[in-house]
Amino acid sequence: MIMSEKSKQHVDSCRFCWMCHHICPIGNATGHERSTPRARALGISMVNRGAIDLSEIMDNIYECAGCGACVRDCVTGWDPVMFTKEVRLQAALEDKLPTYINTLVDNCLESGNAYGKTALCDKLSEAIAAHADKTDTLLYLGVDARYMACEQAVKAIKVLEKAGVKFTVLADEAASGNQLDFLIGAAEETKEQMAAAAKVMNGYKTVVIYDPADAKTVKQTYGEYGIELECKAVTYTAYLAELVKSGALKGEKSGKTVVFQDPCQLARDLEETEEAREVVKAFADLDEMLLNRGETVWAGNILMAQYIPDVMKLVAERRIFNAKSIGKTAMVTASVSEYVSLKNVEQNDVEILSLEDLILG
Ligand code: SF4
Ligand code: SF4
């Protein structure tokens, strides 16, 4: 397998190291050593040495959520996310992707989303139609909200309406490239999708990005891949925090005491942790999870639930248990994908709320 010297160095450093295996949400959910960063590195190193074929480790390669917990924890600065993404790209180039990943990739290329969806729900179509006129500000919803959690997408629109913002939402939104980047890394197809989305975004002064996964891609990965962004890209949470601060979005205490589930993309990639807390504090009393801010534990996503749904359920159950075990009864999330993942767990101990649920009451 062709692999950069940099990734090979990281792989060989991780393969016999146990230091971060206890913090991987996937490894903790499955209980399998093979799911941990170091075991993934060991498998890759065996491919690099010709002991096994790349196709034999591909299921394991797609178990990584890219949540970055291992990268943050590594005191020596090694990066399992980097080498895992490189292997995904190489597998795509060598035509060794698992069938279930090929299907998701094909869907991304054909319909702009991994789920192969083409139609929005009626309520969302209506809400979008009310914001069809061009303004300076684009609300970018992202494919998870548009196709897999349309009620949340409608609520995201309603919150900005409540604050009196003039904004545009596109009926035909270009994919950010986030899903392709997760599935096949820095492939030409990924960059082409990103460039097409950036071209649309550059037609606005400000782009408010609802989904933290898209926000990380647009605000961070675009720069790494040489995609030019001329607009001001802000996360939905940071935008709401400004609206609260200016008084446009008036706080109203709900009487609830909640903990905030930091999305890993906001807390670790973009180092944005306080903005969402400012919004939460305007509508509820804020408490903290045991592992919060940069130490957050990822709670699952919609994309990986397409191929390992049972693992996603276990991941979400464990995060809910984190809140329950310290006596918390309500959790607010700012990630639409984590919201769906947490809501999929059948339980009555911890109320799961989105930021929009909290604001709209
Ligand atoms: S990322 Fe760091 S702590 Fe984790 S396995 Fe690699 S070397 Fe060890
Ligand atoms: S990025 Fe997250 S899911 Fe992937 S190996 Fe590291 S801790 Fe595990």
Characterization of the model:
This protein has 361 residues and is α/β, with parallel strands linked by helices. The protein folds into three domains: 5-97, no CATH class; 122-241, 3-Layer(aba) Sandwich (Rossmann fold); 250-360, Rossmann fold, CATH 3.40.50. Helix content is 52%, strand content 8%. It has 20 helices and seven strands. The chain has helices at residues 5-14, 25-30, 37-48, 58-61, 69-73, 80-93, 99-111, 122-129, 143-148, 150-162, 178-184, 188-201, 212-224, 236-246, 264-269, 274-283, 302-305, 309-324, 336-343, 355-360, and strands at 137-140, 206-209, 232-235, 257-261, 285-287, 330-333, 351-354. Strands 5-4-6-7 form a four-stranded parallel beta sheet. The chain has a three-stranded parallel beta sheet with strand order 1-2-3. The mean pLDDT is 97. The structure holds iron/sulfur cluster (SF4) (2 copies). The site of one iron/sulfur cluster has 13 residues, from helix 2, helix 5 and helix 6.
Major beta sheet, strand line-up: 5-4-6-7
Structural class: alpha/beta
End-to-end separation in angstroms reads 53 Å
Helix amount: 40-55%
Q: Tell me what portion of residues adopts beta-strand conformation.
A: 5-15%
Bound molecules: iron/sulfur cluster
Evaluate the radius of gyration. 20 Å
**What's the CATH architecture name of the largest domain?**
3-Layer(aba) Sandwich
Question: What's the helix count?
Answer: 20
Low-confidence stretches: none
Return the average pLDDT rounded to an integer.
97
